[in-house]
Amino acid sequence: MNILFMCVANSARSQMAEALAKDILGEKVTVMSAGIHPAVTVHSEAVAAMEEIGFDISSAKPKLHGNLPPSFLANLDYVITVCEEELCPELTTRKERLRWSFPDPVLLQGEEQKQAFREIRNELEQKIFDFGHHHQLLA
After folding, report:
1. H-helix or E-strand containing 105?
2. Which of 15, 45, 47, 59 is 20–30 Å from 113 (CA)?
3. Are strands 30-35 and 96-99 parallel, antiparallel or unpaired?
4. Which ranges constitute the DSSP H helices of 9-92?
């Protein structure tokens, strides 16, 4: 199964989702993330939120969806958008699309921003577990 997590900048929500899904769903799936206007780097608070639960995404790089491997894109099973619905990219695909709408934590500041990253991380983790159970991908 091939899963693509999409958002606008691929600097926070989709990066966290990619790391969590790779860990939770394991080798039964190929997971990537991308954006339509990728940022230069992954947001430092996304890195920090993931470090709190033992994940190192500090070397992850935002990617443009069109630059992903053609074989991956040709064999997509799910495109999951994780940004606010009105901002989420639309891909021309006949594959299953899921919308997991999360507000952009980058727009916040200080402690409020840190907390938003944590909450989104936790909600993503639960949604990925639910997805894995629903598709019988978990042991």
Report:
1. none
2. 59
3. unpaired
4. 13-25, 44-51, 70-74
**Residue 38 corresponds to which tokens in the numbers above?**
């990728």
Q: For residue 107, what are the contacts with CB-CB under 8 A and spacing of at least 6? A: none
Distance of CA 85 to the CA centre of its chain: 14
pTM of the shown model: 0.93
State the chain's maximal CA–CA distance in angstroms.
41
CA distance 128 to 134: 10
Instruction: Tokens for 63, please give them.
Output: 């990617």
SS3 114: helix
Tokens of 32: 């990537």
Flag whether pLDDT at 118 surpasses 80.
Answer: yes
Strand order in the sheet with 2-7: 30-35, 2-7, 78-81, 96-99
The CATH homologous superfamily to which domain 2-130 belongs is Response regulator (3.40.50.2300)
Catalogue the active-site residues. Answer: 7, 83, 88
Pick the closest to residue 14 from 56, 43, 55 (CA basis). 43
